[in-house]
Write a structure and sequence with these properties.
This protein has 204 residues and is α+β, with helices and mostly antiparallel strands. Helix content is 15%, strand content 40%. The mean pLDDT is 91.
Length: 204
């Protein structure tokens, strides 16, 4: 489990194309400290497994399904990525519960800069809008953010200078894709209410 609090802005240093997958090599001095084979690291909000670790770099395999359903497929050497290690038991939950399982991809629609913050508008795939509410939580490229406005096919977030400086949302431009993960609690509530309304819950 992650919290959506990005630890560092890493970089893709190599991409190896495989038959039905690819292998990324990523640089991240913070997240690789103490890393070992089999550990999980969130890359732009996608939970990946460390295959190899050497110095301040690690490799991770990404299967075709993940490449298709997330924005990882557009990454290339030199791409910057948000990196986060799993939260430790007993630590503070700084953001919200993030699984590292992408629900869909959105697109940066526009940016409205101001003196102290910036409003970013992001498209919302069909089927996800019911999970996104004003002042609710959403994960964008692995970043835990609060929704400002929620429409049927878009939402906006307000970014402080720290977020702009330390994450990919500081450099993403209109047209760029982003990974989205909605609040998992909303999905569980929907499932439980659905079972109650159809009577399935009572039959179990």
């Amino acid at each position: 489990m992650f919290t959506g609090i990005v630890e560092e802005l890493g970089e893709i240093t190599a991409v190896e194309t495989l038959d039905d997958a690819c292998r990324f090599r990523l640089r991240g001095p913070v997240v690789t400290e103490g890393a070992k084979h089999g550990d999980s690291i969130a890359v732009n909000g996608v939970c990946l497994t460390v295959v190899e670790h050497e110095g301040d770099e690690f490799t991770a395999d990404v299967m075709a399904e993940t490449l298709k359903r997330s924005s990882l497929g557009v990454l290339a050497v030199g791409s910057r990525v948000n990196l986060e290690r799993p939260t430790a038991v007993g630590s503070r939950l700084g953001g919200h519960i993030v699984q590292g399982h992408v629900d869909g991809t959105g697109e940066i629609l526009g940016r409205e800069p101001s003196k102290n913050w910036e409003i970013v508008k992001i498209s919302l795939p069909a089927g996800l809008s019911r999970y996104v509410v004003e002042k609710g939580s959403i994960t964008v490229d692995g970043i835990s953010l609060t929704v400002v406005d929620a429409g049927s096919d878009f939402f906006t977030v307000s970014l402080i200078p720290t977020t702009l400086a330390l994450t990919t949302l500081g450099i993403k431009q209109p047209g760029d894709p982003v990974n989205l993960e909605v609040d998992v609690i909303a999905k569980y509530v929907e499932r439980m209410l659905g079972d109650r309304l159809t009577g399935e819950g009572a039959a179990r």
